TrEMBL record:
Pfam families: ANTAR, GAF_2. The lineage of its organism: Bacteria, Bacillati, Actinomycetota, Actinomycetes, Micrococcales. GO terms for molecular function: kinase activity; RNA binding. Residues 183-244 form the ANTAR domain. This is GAF domain-containing protein. Keywords: Kinase, Transcription, Transcription regulation, Transferase.
Length: 259
């Protein structure tokens, strides 16, 4: 099938007109720096990709799906319709996006009306005004997997040059996504450490209270708290917080740490 039959050729850089002095890599890097978390980055990435591949005659939407062992599936989309279609595909357990992930290869749906694969999902796709789909995996070099899904409103909406441009876009997007994921992991690790330090501080304070009340040593006081935790089937930190509250009246004691 030739390009004329598939539809208009578009330039993936066209959607970056708002950044005339920046290349795609710089723009993607800015997305990482401007995003407060991974969810926001994925939404901005999907919005950028949709703009890059949209032309006057062919509206394109985008969804980005990330699969990690710890967090499961995280998605971002350029609009609510695409977000719903991405979630529906996950519910079905199969489709162009998931196939691209499993096989680490580009998947093209030329015409959703006549696509023999994933018939139930394709029916939903067509009902939602999507004529063709291009799913391009992002190479993240690790256990985390990701795919960029482009949705065209028209059948035959993606040409050969579009596929090449999408693969180039995905290459740059993967680099930025790796950075966004690393930042997210570091942020989560910091939050986990802060929570652990908060819990440790609460327990230490409660141990001190029990030592003073019972005139006992640290080990004995800790065993008192542990026995109470086990017998009541309540977390040790919650038992410790209750002990502190019984003395100070604070229902949720906080500890403060230097950053």
């Amino acid at each position: 099938m030739n390009s004329a039959e598939r539809g208009p050729t578009r330039n993936a850089s066209a959607g970056l007109a708002a950044h005339p002095n920046q290349d795609l890599g710089v723009t993607l890097q800015d997305l990482v720096l401007e995003s407060v978390d991974l969810d926001e980055f994925l939404t901005k990435l999907a919005t950028l990709a949709a703009a890059a591949f949209t032309t006057a005659s062919n509206a394109v939407s985008c969804g980005v799906t990330v699969v990690t062992r710890k967090k499961g599936v995280t998605t971002g989309s350029s609009d609510e319709r695409v977000g719903a279609l991405d979630e529906l595909q996950i519910e079905f357990g199969d489709g162009p996006c998931l196939t691209a992930l499993r096989h680490n290869s580009v998947v093209l749906v030329v015409d959703s009306r006549h696509e023999s694969r994933w018939s139930d999902y394709m029916e939903a796709v067509w009902r939602n005004g999507v004529g063709s789909i291009l799913a391009v995996p992002l190479d993240l070099d690790g256990e985390t997997e990701a795919v960029m899904n482009l949705y065209s409103t028209t059948p035959h909406g993606f040409t050969g040059p579009d596929i090449t441009a999408a693969e180039e876009f995905a290459e740059g997007a993967a680099t930025s996504l790796r950075l966004a994921l690393k930042i997210s992991q570091l942020r989560n690790a910091k939050d986990d450490l802060t929570a652990a330090m908060q819990s440790r501080s609460t327990i230490d304070t409660a141990v001190g209270i029990v030592m003073a009340q019972n005139r006992c040593g640290r080990d004995t006081a800790f065993k008192v708290l542990t026995r109470a935790s086990n017998s009541r089937n309540v977390k040790l930190r919650d038992i410790a917080a209750h002990v502190i509250a019984s003395v100070s009246g604070e229902t949720d004691p906080e500890a403060y740490f230097d950053e």
